[in-house]
Amino acid sequence: PKEIFLKDYTKPDYYFETVDLSFSLGEEKTIVSSLIKVSPRVKGSSAPLVLNGHDLKLLSVKVEGKLLKEGDYQLDSRHLTLPSLPAKESFVLEIDTEIYPHKNTSLDGLYKSSGNFCTQCEAEGFRKITFYQDRPDIMAKYTCRVEADKSLYPVLLSNGNLISQGDIEGGRHFALWEDPFKKPCYLFALVAGQLASRDDTFTTRSGREVSLKIWTPAEDLPKTAHAMYSLKAAMKWDEDVFGLEYDLDLFNIVAVPDFNMGAMENKSLNIFNSKLVLASPETATDADYAAILGVIGHEYFHNWTGNRVTCRDWFQLSLKEGLTVFRDQEFSSDMGSRTVKRIADVSTLRIYQFPEDAGPMAHPVRPHSYIKMDNFYTGKFSIYLRSLGFLLSIVFQSNVLVFSFMKRVLISISKDMMSKLVTCEDFFAAMRDANNADFANFLQWYSQAGTPVVKVASSYNAEARTFSLKFSQEIPPTPGQPTKEATFIPVTISSSSTILRVTKKEEEFVFSDIAERPVPSLFRGFSAPVRVETDLSDDDLFFLLAHDSDEFNRPLVLNPKFIQGLGSVLSDSTLDKEFIAKAITLPGEGEIMDMMAVADPDAVHVVRKFVRKQLASELKTELLKIVENNRSIEAYVFDHPNMARRALKNTGSSEYKSATNLTDQFAALAALSQNPGKTRDDVLADFYNKWQGDYLVVNKWFLLQSSSDIPGNVENIHALQTTIIQVYSLIGGFCGSPVNFHAKDGSGYKFLGDIVVQLDKINPQVASRMLSAFSRWKRYDETRQALAKAQLEMIMSANGLSENVFEIASKSLA
Ligand code: B3K
Ligand code: ZN
């Protein structure tokens, strides 16, 4: 496998101006014809044109209408090279290929999901459709003609506007689409199948009417109301907050059951994993509703940050992902509770990014190299890149400034086609110039991996009436980066919205005229993605728990006064209910383990369980009162007050039988399924019987069982049959629950090792994502280390390993 380096970037020798694609879709094979207008970057260039291609059968190549013979080109398993090309300003290249979508289980390129055709091209899937320069700096205007059997595939979609459609012989029909905007091939999309649409319209602020369509199988249409609501809310929000208006007259969303990730922002034809589109009160929880809102927003926001403004190469991924995640977080915060959203986002960051930063896959916001780009989009990818968003939101302090900065970026890059391809430097310069701001050594975040550890020492001098805060920062070594430079760390502190700019390894700030020793609330709202070690005492922390006006900084610490403190949080009617629910929920086992020098899953499990029990019995009266006061007999509504009420109620107790929506019912099921026995078996069976026809609900049922702490759970997982779409809930759930995955007899590790090898033959992206559960193996005791290492070695020795799995396994062992 080949490692690709940022420092090796060179401009392409040839640009593609227009691309006319034609697909003849069939059950056994699909024929793809492409007609490309090519122009050399340097006039008269004699450079060869190297096209990417993977799992393609080449039928023919023509240059300027002339068929090339076998000796005129070179073909290997990954490339088609054309060594001699006309020395002209531009010429026409025509390529015909044959592909087999029904056999494509990698869900990358063109594949079939539940009988329908669909595509996924980011990052490098277009090369599985046709021979092409599969890189983001090739921006071309596309047309796409799709032809298929009319009864099997009545709906034919691609990017842009529908130009014409009609019937052809043999029961077939066609549709011709044209995308007026230049785009990189990773944004290409095609869908063909039996689908129905929920239709709506959105009138933009300049008065244009955009037609909106959400496509699913007809029977699922009633479940798309929330997705449509989310889309319209996102379109309005982007206009109101960023002044960004949608730029076409049609916006399509298609929901498909088989999808490697959450969703994909293809120009005007977003394709989604069904679980992020379909929702009804009976089949989706509040968390699902919130995720749908956030992801529909995210993909929609990409239309500007990503699609119109495009990354030059994949190393610049954070430009589109960091910024778009930042935008979707702001959107969700504006639609719900800002504090609760922040707590949830930060906890995800702690659970996924911090461990990744401390493991073999550690990389800076802009990686220096990759083997398979897909590995940089793990479940963690957005969270990783989100750190940039954290910094931005603090640095800018308000959306107005972000907005002006965004506008500046967009204007400065829209001068001509090539300058639209942006790099992190362009982004940084635009931020700095648009706001005339001093970002000091902020750029270090782009090149240094690892989570900074910031130590804070405070001292009060009563005589001088001064208070001092001493900061020191240290970034631990990461693979290939033994030593680090200081970076810009914004620290928000109590008293107004002061930001301390920590830019050196050691720095002291002295505050004068301070009447008594203050208890500082530092890094308010989590102002930088760092680990903080303060010299605050338990009493200080308890004081903050009770009094901090920044809800984010009310920490969880076990203290005799802790229960009492939580009791007062529970009965404080001035606090947001969803915040209370978060505040009284203990951090997960993974999050706690990440803070230990040697992670001890058994100890964490026992202690956490003990604390939970203790809290439940000590706070029983308060909790029962909460359950009583927050019950509702009214119909399910997804809005902040109702969601907050349900969240709070379900922390106290939950009722399986009387529940009228999945949020309440699933909370009850989750609680009951923690204890082995007849009740557990009965409710699990009851739930399955009721929902066996709805695979999204069945997935949740799988997740609940796979992530269960009941002893010897690996046996139960073996017994549950799975398909590829259930892998995430079943295998992901199992590995995410420490007790059984880290079982001392190695059964959990062996289970994962075997699965990865099997899965890699079917779907390398999913296999490598599952494998990353091993990447932190060096954090455990010696016995566990040996067991995990043996599995990694076993995987490395497997035949025909994919590049995806190779990258994670080899880096983990290094
Ligand atoms: N941009 C895509 C992720 C693509 C992952 C490719 N393996 C969707 C998103 O940003 O949400
Ligand atoms: Zn994205």
UniProtKB/TrEMBL annotation:
Gene3D superfamilies: 2.60.40.1840, 3.30.2010.30, Neutral Protease Domain 2 (1.10.390.10), Peptidase M1, alanyl aminopeptidase, C-terminal domain (1.25.50.10), tricorn interacting facor f3 domain (2.60.40.1730)
Residues passing through the membrane, by range: none
Peptidase M1 alanyl aminopeptidase Ig-like fold domain segment(s): 450-534
Any Pfam family: DUF3458_C
GO cellular component, one term: chloroplast
Domain Peptidase M1 membrane alanine aminopeptidase per the UniProt entry, residue ranges: 228-444
GO aspect biological process, one term: proteolysis
Keywords: Aminopeptidase, Hydrolase, Metal-binding, Metalloprotease, Protease, Zinc
InterPro entries per UniProt: Aminopeptidase_N-like_N, Aminopeptidase_N-like_N_sf, PepN_Ig-like_sf, Peptidase_M1, Peptidase_M1_dom, Peptidase_M1_pepN, Peptidase_M1_pepN_C, Peptidase_M1_pepN_C_sf
Domain Peptidase M1 alanyl aminopeptidase C-terminal, first and last residues per copy: 558-814
Domain Aminopeptidase N-like N-terminal: start-end pairs: 20-187
GO molecular function: aminopeptidase activity; metallopeptidase activity; zinc ion binding
SUPFAM superfamilies linked: Leukotriene A4 hydrolase N-terminal domain (SSF63737), Metalloproteases ('zincins'), catalytic domain (SSF55486)
Cofactor(s) this protein cannot do without: Zn(2+)
PANTHER family reported in the protein's UniProt record: PUROMYCIN-SENSITIVE AMINOPEPTIDASE
Record family assignment: Belongs to the peptidase M1 family.
Name the UniProt record assigns to this protein: Peptidase M1 leukotriene A4 hydrolase/aminopeptidase C-terminal domain-containing protein
